[in-house]
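We include the pair:
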Amino acid sequence: MGPDEWHPHVRVAGPEYEGLLYGLHGFVAAPLSGDSLLLRGVLPPRGGRSEPRVALWDGRDLASSVAFDISVTDTECEPFGPLTHILALRRLAADHLNGRLGAFAGTDGFGIPVRDLRQRYREIADECRPTIGDALGVPLRALTAQAQDLEDCALWGFVLADRATGRYYVRVPHEEGTEITVGVDLRLRDSEGSPRDQVGMLDVYLPSLAHDHDLTRFRVADGDGYCDLVCDLTEFIGGLGE
């Protein structure tokens, strides 16, 4: 496949493509899983293609590079979230390393072998399930995606508090222009015990509570020395993955 087969006119893919870019940028220098492949690039939709291409490599030898045409929506045209892309590409990387993807159709303008996996990607995405570590990262993406808008709630740290709860430290306004650090507890598993893959309206609710100085009504007794108080939002933020 030559570069002339990807026409030079960019077709905007909308927020679905932006979600892909945002979800994957952290894997440029860190492998998708274990000693696996790194992200070499996210290549935009072009010409008659409405969906992007993702390039992976081993971080050492450019000749190890591969590229996959993927989908940003499921069979019902609903957009995949950032975590779904991470899980699906993790699976694709493993399948490639184990020789399960077959031959590539050609190369792009960078000489990277390319394979059209849009349909397979949808199938893999539907099968993927997050780990508790994945679930721990979901609120982090929500709180940092629009950092410039979170003027009343600055992410200050986080920890997996137990096997079902993440604690997220945020700096919030206090009295007379001061700030305090609040440890906010969020549930990372659903009612069946499976790790969650969505964050609901956390990025709306949490800054609103901080702005209105309303977090303290969720205060619980806790000996956490990393913050001034702990607030339990495990029930209030019921949109997490529900």
Observations:
- The helical segments are 15-24, 82-97, 118-127, 132-145, 202-211.
- DSSP finds five helices and ten strands in the chain.
